[in-house]
Structure formats: structure tokens, C-alpha cells
Amino acid sequence: MESFAFHNPTKLLFGKGQVSSLKKEIPAYGKRVLLLYGGGSIKKSGLYDKVIGELNEIDAYVVELGGVEPNPRLTTVNQGIALIRENQLDFILAVGGGSVIDAAKAIAAGVPYDGDVWDIVTSKAKAPSSAVPIGTVITIAGTGSEMNGNSVITNWETNTKAFFNSNHVLPRFSILDPELTSTVPRDQTVYGSVDIMAHVFEQYFHASSNAPLQERIGEAILRTVIETAPKLVNDLNNYDYREVMLLNGTLALNGLTGMGVNPDWATHLIEHAVSAVHDIPHGGGIAIIAPHWMEHVAAVRPEKVAQLGVRVFDLDPTGKTDAELASEAIQALRAFWASIGAPAKLSDYGIDDKEIELMTERAMLAEQIGNYVPLTKDDVRTILRKSL
Amino acid sequence: MESFAFHNPTKLLFGKGQVSSLKKEIPAYGKRVLLLYGGGSIKKSGLYDKVIGELNEIDAYVVELGGVEPNPRLTTVNQGIALIRENQLDFILAVGGGSVIDAAKAIAAGVPYDGDVWDIVTSKAKAPSSAVPIGTVITIAGTGSEMNGNSVITNWETNTKAFFNSNHVLPRFSILDPELTSTVPRDQTVYGSVDIMAHVFEQYFHASSNAPLQERIGEAILRTVIETAPKLVNDLNNYDYREVMLLNGTLALNGLTGMGVNPDWATHLIEHAVSAVHDIPHGGGIAIIAPHWMEHVAAVRPEKVAQLGVRVFDLDPTGKTDAELASEAIQALRAFWASIGAPAKLSDYGIDDKEIELMTERAMLAEQIGNYVPLTKDDVRTILRKSL
């Protein structure tokens, strides 16, 4: 393992009806609240009314910012920052999926910063030393944003998706009521399941030694997704399945499986480049790119892919080489994602080879990306071409 | 799952040389420090000098309390409380194993309390609403006390071992340097491994439904112990094995596998009764009692014991009933503990049937104990008799 610091003070409030904890949790941070949400599904579901009811009970002064996009935009972040400054708000309540929470984090870090918040997101500015406190009510399982300090923001002026991480933007509390995720449509449910698995992969394929416990915990999450997602996509209102997937999503990216390992993240970087050029759902992009990335990895270092096959997809290793097992593991992963209805080709989203160079460019944050198997620009271009 | 709140803000600082973080971490809580430690092994190992060096660098005012016992005593806790009050100390640095940290927690909660601290430990007083902040440097893997709010204290006047749990006594930070655990002797290393497994069992055998992820994470910890402990006990100075066992211990009892489930804890209650009457090592007592407890459980509800056998001990379920699998699982557990040199009978510690009634009495905190399979007084007496 690498030396590491782990400090995750987010308070999880998990279970049916936990929205009613808002009136107890918020006052510790102030009563002037920016209420942030997405496309309005929370109004249809009745969640909006419940949240407003809680805020009214504590006589909160509420400023709303709705319409946060699925790939949240810098322009929206800037709007949020302006609203907090103008109205002297002291708390952000993010109600929605990972996009809304990611936007909240960039807003939170941007408020006390003098310059352009994009400098924080792209790590051009110094790391934030303070932020407006955030609380969340999560409505989609998958991103894990409810219990980490990560934020991914898209700048459409430059077709760039960038991310930052700061412990200052860790939600102070997150409300996880599985019932609130029961209205998530089938395709978004699939994307969430894919994203959870990819978060495990990015940390499972690490460049460190001696992390058997972290790997086994990752495998525990993967097996639970593989067991639950197929049942869930055919029974979207099932509370038990929603409950399990919600916890899966939180634990897949809260620092737990990443303790003491140097993670990879190449798949995410490539996908971010794709969805910064073409506005496609993140989980969909991941389902397309990850297997091609894994094939590249298996050609260089097959052993961990083989381990994944044996421990997660129950492959019988008898008489097989790591390369053979790895190839079967990738086949099993593809078959699993196909079985729940995940996309397999960029052309499923109408994307052709026109922007391959721009996407390749955008993925290359450095000369090489990835850690378990570092990728050159040529490698990334090849993975994108195969993904068409 | 049950509804739950999870809030674990302990900062882990894991890796070689992390003791040098003390000078950065402590000043946030004050510089008047109670330095708490055990039998003096930290003086032999040189750790004491390193810690004092760190404290001197920040010009801390240090009052020492050494000699905290393996089953820490109420009398020692009272000494600590008096020292903090007399010297107006504002921070407790606990350097040692779980016993030292448990004592620190009772001291921390006792200082702001007017009455007898034993009332807090036995939950006769209201739950603590504040406590002196604690930091820890852990020297033995096993108890998990470095990342939870649990404390077990023994009152020798009444032969009673009692425990309390409070988020107020969660360590603010814990230093986990695997190298500091490399001088732990073989028997203590075995006890730690047993205790880690028992902590998983207490939460794995829960009385709730629909917790597949928590169970799989428990299995991940168990498999990692089973893989690592036999190598470690034959190679006590191996850094890699110590590293893995240290993280195992922390994650086995930090709230993670207990999310949303109603745990059992009967084995621990019975063992606490044994070691409150006879001063034996906790992990040794657990190794003796747990298999007999599990046999009782298997007779009533074999299915989870069977699952343990298949998923953790790799039993082949083909053509077998749950009862058969459960019986094989318990055999496998016994064989594993015997293989690392854990005791199997109370008579290994010279304990005979003389105090069976007193131990039975002490274990019965209520009419029934345990949740997965509730135990009556007769059940507990039987388990103790079988353990002789």
C-alpha cells in the first residue's frame, strides 16, 4: 500500500422518510439556503414540496436554482456563485443526482474565491481552503458524489470537462432515501449501475502492491451490482433493489476501496472527453469505453483482469492462462452490460469518427493517462476508434 | 435494511512514519496533553521517545498515565479523569492497543460528567453530550477502537465488564503505522486476528433483511484475515502482512459492515463475562466461545452459517443441506483457529466450572441476549459449559 490519509466526515442518513431530517440538520449551517436542483423531476415526484416544507418549518430564506444539467455546466456554476454572493446565503442544499451535487461543490468552492471558478475546477488555482457548506438529498444511485469531494464540470465554450477534488466540499450530510430513487427511468438506472462498477474498476486496477482487502471490498461491490441490477431493471419500483443499489453507489466512491492505492481513472478521462464533445450520458459512455480499455490493459497486464474474472464472474481457472481468463472476463463483462441494456458502441449515440482527434486531445490531461497501464495519445485514439 | 445514520469523522493517517504527523494534528485540540499508554512496551520499542519528541516540538505540557491494563480497569479510568481535571488538560493521546484507547474514551467522557463514570459506561447516566478530544497511535491490530466510539471497561470490585458507545469519543485522528505493530508477540497477534473475525461475525449474523453488500464486505474482511493471518504468525516481522491486518482490524468495526443491520453481539457479551471473572485475553476467550455459539445458532437458523461456509471457507454446496454446510463451516472455522494457535477450551486458561453461574449471570444484560438468535440464560450456561 501507499501511505494514505482517509477522512470522510459526511453524515449519511439512510432510509425511508429521511428527508424529514432536513429541519434538524440544516440549522447548524445557517438558514439562508441556495436550493439547487435539476430538470424538475423533483417537482413531479413531490420531493420538491417535501423539501420546501422542511425549509419552511425552520423559517429558512430560500433562493432557488433549478435546471442544473446532466453534465453540469460552468455557466450554471457561475449563476449559483452569483446568487449566493448577492443574497448572502450560507448553505447549499443540492437535491438531485450526481450532476446537481457536482455543481453544488463547484459553487461552494467558487464563492470564497476571487478569480474564475474554472481555475479551481482545472486545478490552475490553489486548492480551495474553504467552501460554503453543502447538504444533499440524492435521487439517483451511481455517482457517489453524496459522500466524496469530487466534482466534474463541463465548459461548453472550450468543449472541456474537468474535475477537482477537495475535502472542503464533502457534503456535511447526505440524505439517502431509496424511495426517492424509485422514479429513476430504466436507462438512467442502467447508467448508474455501469458507473458504480466503473468506479470500482478505476480503483481495482491500481498501480500499488499489497492491497488484498481493498480489492476484495471492490469485488464485494461488483458482485452485489451484478446480482441486483438485472433484477432492478426489470422491477424498477422494487424498494429492496433500490436500497441495495443506493448503498452500492455510495461505497463505490467514498474513498474506501481507494485507501492506500494509486488508482487508474483512464476510462473516466476518456469518457469525460467524449461527453465534453458530444453531450451523452456519462454511464452510457463508460459502458462503451471500459471494455475496450480493459482489452488494452489485458494485453499488457492480464493478471488483474483474470482475477476479476475468477472472483467476480465465477470463471473456472483450471488449465487457463491469465490471458485466456482475462479475455473471458471481458466477454462476461460485455455480456452482463448487454443483458441490462447498456449501449456498446458510440454509434448507438450517433457519434462517428469526425471528432476523434478532438476527443483524443481532450482526454490527454498529461503525456500519459492512467496508472495501472499508462496510455499514450495513440492508445487513447485506438480505444476511441474501437469504441465507434 | 434498517434506517441508519453513519457518521465516522475519524481521520486515519496510515503508513510508515506517520507518527511524525502528531505535531501537525495535536495543536488543533490544545497543547495540554494526557499521554496514556500500557505496560511499557512502547518504551522498549522506542515509540515512547518518538512520541515525546513530537510533543516537545510543539511545546506541549504533558502528563503521563502508563500501565493501562489489557482489560482496562475502572480504577485507571478514574485516575485519568482526576489527572485531566487537576492539570486542566485538553487532549488525550492514547498510545497502545485497544485497551489503552478504550480507557481513553471512558476518561474523555468522564471528565465533563459530574457523577461516577461507571454510570456512563453502564448507560445508567444519560449518553455523553461532550468529551475531551482523543487522538490515537495504535500498536496492535484487532479491536478497531481506533475508528469507533466503543469502549469496554472492567470493574473488578463487582466482576463486571461493561461497554458504552458514543460518537463524542470517536478519535479525532488515529495514526496507523504497520511497523509499530511488528513487535506484537505471536499470541497477541493470534488474538487480534480472532477478534477481527468475531467483529465481522457479530454484524454478519444480523437480525435484518436485505443487506447483501454489508455481508459481502464482511466476507471480504474474513477472507483477507484467513489468507493473511497464517502467513503472519509464522513471519511476525513481515511489514506487508502487518499492513493488511492493521487495515482489516480498522474496517471490521468502524460501522461499515454494520450499516443498516441489527447486529448480534452475544459472543462478545459472553466473553466479556468470562474475562470479567477470569482475567484472560479477550481474543482468546472469543476463539473458545464463538464456535460453540455458532453451533447453537446453526441448530436454529443454519442458512447464514452455511453461506459463510460456501463464501468464506470455499465449501462445495452440491447436494448438501444448510445444516450440513453449517456444520462443515464451523469445523472449518475451528480448524483455521487451531492452525494459527488459538485456544479452544477455557481449561487452556485453567478455568473450570466453579464460576459458571457467575459468568452466566454477568453475560445476561437482559432477559435474552443476541439478535440473530436470541439466547436465554440456559442457552448461555450451555455454551459456557461446552466451552470448558
TrEMBL record, chains A, B:
Sequence ranges assigned to domain Fe-containing alcohol dehydrogenase-like C-terminal in this UniProt record: 189-387
Keyword Nucleotide-binding included in the entry's annotation: no
Domain Alcohol dehydrogenase iron-type/glycerol dehydrogenase GldA: 9-178
Keyword annotations: Oxidoreductase
Keyword Cell cycle: no
PANTHER family: ALCOHOL DEHYDROGENASE YQHD (PTHR43633)
Protein name: Iron-containing alcohol dehydrogenase
Natural source organism: Paenibacillus glycinis
UniProt lineage: Bacteria, Bacillati, Bacillota, Bacilli, Bacillales
